[in-house]
Write a structure and sequence with these properties.
Strand content: 5-15%
Number of domains: 3
Order of helices and strands: HHEHEHEHEHHEHEHEHEHEHEHEHEHH
CATH superfamily of the largest domain: NadA-like
CATH architecture of the largest domain: 3-Layer(aba) Sandwich
Helix content: 40-55%
Number of helices: 16
Bound molecules: 1,3-dihydroxyacetonephosphate, iron/sulfur cluster
Low-confidence stretches: none
Structural class: alpha/beta
Length: 337
């Protein structure tokens, strides 16, 4: 059994090896242990809807990217345990330099964030000095530092509309969300060519067949999906938007085109309704985000117990990345979002 006090082992945990060598007593009630650790350490667990059900069930707050950033900005906890992916925990750290921010698995990245390397993006941005840069929150701190305003899927349209109609805009990194906002607002934003591997995997053909088999079902989709999928949707929105829609709608069946984790809250909120995950274009489980699903209840427990791995950041980068996040939070508050 690995010795957690050993410097080498601690370094391995914060590098790419994680908690692989640390054994957990199988008789431990992890839910109770995590509750104990929360109180002991004055910790708050923030979880995204794409986390596995067990993690959602121990979280203090479950939300979409905007809700989680707002919660991270307002928490008075000493420690933030982020059950989500790296850019989300990083955002929490940017907003809370004096709090300890933990992520159960540092390898929980994001394909969309990876599609925009800051050095490459800077070259692109510098070629368009008259454009304002609006960047989707699914990006690194380095990308945020190159941006004017951050947005999420729930406030992107309002943020774009808050700018004068003739303002030139670069939108990065998600080309699908960017194209959707262009369509909704009539703008012609310049789009970075990035995308999310999970939201690009849905099969138009299988969704069409499902709609024929379930004629009363509402088809709902996240705006990170490709345009032909969005064209079929009865409702398009962020994960929180999708959840609310299923609660408020009279429909009894829903075909859901986003990561499958959200179905846990949908089913909990509306036990009498049926939720069908939109199928991917092959037989894999690719509508599960492989990054989000790296976090497990075991890793969450170990991360809280040993306070590792921790998110750290250089202060100049943090300050530069904070500015566009603050603008997003201000504009969102103005619109009551
Ligand atoms: P929202 O949290 O804004 O719904 O976005 C989903 C997502 O892809 C997070 O990675
Ligand atoms: Fe990134 Fe897509 Fe996973 Fe969200 S679902 S974390 S956008 S890879």
């Amino acid at each position: 059994m690995a010795d957690i006090n050993n410097e080498k082992i601690r370094n391995e945990i914060v590098s790419n090896k994680g908690f692989l060598d640390i054994e957990i007593d199988v008789t431990l009630d992890l839910f109770a242990e995590i509750e104990k650790l929360k109180k002991e350490k004055k910790a708050v667990i923030l979880a995204h809807y794409y986390q596995e059900p067990d993690i959602q069930d121990v979280a203090d707050f479950i939300g979409d990217s905007l809700g989680l950033s707002q919660k991270a900005a307002s928490t008075d906890a000493d420690m933030i345990v982020f059950a989500g992916v790296h850019f989300m925990a990083e955002t929490a750290k940017i907003l809370n330099p004096n709090k300890k921010v933990l992520l159960p698995d540092l390898n929980a990245g994001c394909s969309l964030s990876d599609s925009a390397p800051p050095a490459l993006f800077k070259l692109f941005r510098d070629k368009h000095p008259d454009h304002i840069v609006i960047t989707y929150i699914n990006c690194s701190a380095g990308m945020k530092a190159l941006s004017d305003i951050i947005c999420t899927s729930s406030n992107a349209q309002k943020i774009v509309e808050s700018l004068p109609a003739d303002q030139k805009i670069i939108f990065a990194p998600d080309k699908n969300l960017g194209a959707y906002i262009n369509k909704q607002t009539g703008r012609d934003m310049l789009l970075w060519n990035g995308s999310c591997m999970v939201h690009e995997i849905f099969s138009l053909e299988k969704i069409t067949k499902l709609k024929i088999r379930h004629p009363k079902a509402k088809f709902i989709a996240h705006p990170e999906c490709e345009a032909p999928v969005l064209a079929l949707a009865d409702y398009i929105g962020s994960t929180t938007g999708l959840l609310k829609y299923t609660q408020q709608s009279d429909a009894k069946e829903f075909i859901v085109a986003t990561e499958t984790g959200i179905l846990h809250q949908m089913q909990k909120a509306s036990p009498d309704k049926t939720f069908i995950p939109a199928p991917p274009n092959n037989t894999c489980a690719c509508n599960d985000c492989p990054y989000m699903k790296l976090n497990t209840l075991e890793k969450l427990y170990l991360c809280m117990k040993y306070e590792l791995p921790e998110i750290t950041m250089d202060e100049p980068l943090r300050l530069a990345a904070k500015k566009p996040i603050d603008r997003m939070l201000e504009i969102s508050a103005q619109f009551g979002l």
